[in-house]
Specification:
By secondary structure, the protein is an alpha+beta fold. Helix content is 39%, strand content 15%. It contains 7 helices and 7 strands; from the N terminus they run βαβααααββαβαββ. The strands form 3 sheets. The protein has a 3-stranded antiparallel beta sheet. A two-stranded parallel sheet has the order 1-2. Strands 3-7 form a two-stranded antiparallel ribbon.
Length: 206
């Protein structure tokens, strides 16, 4: 695994999840001696059983212009993924304020530029580790799908244009092509992004 025969030093990586393991392997490739610390077996904590997508297309932050209009419902609806207990609102209020401040258009564009710089080379970095481990058969490069209902066509076009501005290779799929690709979609799902620059593990438990 070590790309350089010259030892650069000793690095200690805390956490044997996907981030810790990747960091440790790359340090080894660069010639470092690495100690990996975790109380649990590698990959058995947060990294286990989640969506586990190599989302190199995800340049848009969660906080976007206009999210303040959605925030009350997102926080107070019991079926919302962001639902919280009303009594917790005073404690989380400072964080929510900073979150909303980050949703201005200039701030979102700045964050997207930073994310693009970080994400653009990362699939190649992952691929190097897959090659080293002989694990290419455990990764599927099927792309990612974003589904929009018929009335959301303009939103789909706007978001597509935004990502294409950051060199994300997406395209809009609709009509018969969409039905052929995803026959199970109902009639309301009329528009879809196709995002080929992503990958997922093919391990059933992940």
């Amino acid at each position: 695994m070590i790309a350089s025969q010259q030892q650069r030093g000793h690095a200690v990586v805390v956490g044997a999840g996907v981030v810790g393991l990747a960091s440790a392997l790359w340090l080894q490739r660069l010639g470092w001696r690495v100690t990996l610390l975790d109380r649990q077996p590698p990959g058995s904590g947060t990294s286990f059983g989640n969506a586990c997508t190599f989302a190199t297309y995800a340049v848009e932050p969660v906080a976007t212009p206009g999210i303040w209009r959605q925030a009350p419902g997102m926080l107070l609806r019991r079926d919302s993924p962001l639902a919280i207990r009303p009594g917790y609102l005073p404690r989380i209020a400072p964080w929510l304020w900073r979150f909303l401040q980050s949703s201005s258009e200039p701030r979102v564009k700045a964050i997207s530029h930073d994310l693009h710089s970080l994400l653009k080379p990362c699939m190649g970095a992952w691929q190097a580790l897959f090659d080293d481990a002989g694990a290419n058969d455990l990764v599927r490069h099927d792309g990612s799908l974003y589904i929009f209902e018929a009335h959301e066509r303009q939103s789909a076009i706007d978001m597509l244009a935004y990502h294409q501005g950051f060199e994300v290779p997406m395209r809009l799929v609709e009509g018969p092509e969409l039905r052929a690709m995803e026959p199970a979609l109902n009639a309301r799902a009329a528009w879809r992004w196709n995002c080929p620059r992503s990958a997922v593990p093919s391990i059933p438990s992940h």
